[in-house]
Amino acid sequence: MLLGGATPKERNGVWLPSGGGPVNQNNIKEVPFQPWARGVLADRDINQLEPHTRCKPSGVTRPFLTPYGVEFVELQELERIFIFDIGGPHTYRTIYLDGRTHPANLDPSYYGHSIGWWEGDTLVIDTIGFNEGFWLDRRGSPHTDKLHTLERFTRTDAATFNYEVTIDDPGAYTKVWKSGFQLRRDPEVELFEYVCQQMNYAHELMVGSNDSVDRSSPIVP
């Protein structure tokens, strides 16, 4: 297992963001936001109503930027890889490695529809079909349902791999752009129980600069 995921004999080990969790390597001024998307980002800097703090699934890069990390589980007989988000709502993402293509009609979802393949030692994941209910990263970069991502996971040594993502979203950005960071493996930790809202003291991350928020919608933008 090149990604160093769990096996029947070795159940411990999770992947954590290197350096405590970089927000993004890109300089914010260099990211090609459309004007409305840059405005949304500015508002989120003040009103951090992040879906992740409200126990909503986090798509694309966001699960890799939590303090609890992720776990990769590859089932070769099913030709699939599962990525478990340890914190938050305890959800998981499915990567199909059986050669299928994306369906013609997809219901938008937090994780979208992912197909993958190996290019040497690099796992490549192509994903479409996202909804707009999550942030791309910890700082609040927005996206639309036109988002198409291409992720590359390359193991560089026993405890490190490089993660690179290409963002193609003509609804929110003026051109395609890339970002990336490193993940480090902690071999002593395994998946553990996580109750998302229990003893949650991050009130400011849930209501921002407001006294309360509208709870009539099941999805926080």
**Secondary-structure element sequence?**
EHEEEEEEEEH
For the termini, the CA-CA separation is: 36 Å
Structural class: mainly beta
Shape: globular
Question: Unreliable segments (pLDDT under 50, ≥5 consecutive)?
Answer: 20-25
Q: Give a quick account of the main beta sheet: strands, pairing sense, barrel closure.
A: 9 strands, mixed
Q: What percentage of residues falls in helices of 4 or more residues? A: under 10%
Compute the average pLDDT.
83
Count the strands?
9
**Arrangement of strands in the largest sheet:** 1-9-8-7-6-5-4-3-2
The tally of domains stands at 1
Instruction: Return Rg in Å.
Output: 17 Å
* Strand residue content: 25-35%
Total count of helical runs of at least 4 residues: 2
What does this structure look like?
The protein is mainly beta and 221 residues long. It has one domain. The protein has helices at 35-46, 203-207, and strands spanning 14-17, 70-75, 80-85, 92-96, 113-119, 122-128, 148-157, 160-168, 177-186.
Q: Concise description?
A:
This protein has 221 residues and is mainly beta. It has helices at residues 35-46, 203-207; strands spanning 14-17, 70-75, 80-85, 92-96, 113-119, 122-128, 148-157, 160-168, 177-186.
Topology (elements, then pairings):
Layout (H helix, E strand, L loop, with lengths): L13 E4 L17 H12 L23 E6 L4 E6 L6 E5 L16 E7 L2 E7 L19 E10 L2 E9 L8 E10 L16 H5 L14
Parallel strand pairs: 4-5
Antiparallel strand pairs: 1-9, 2-3, 3-4, 5-6, 6-7, 7-8, 8-9
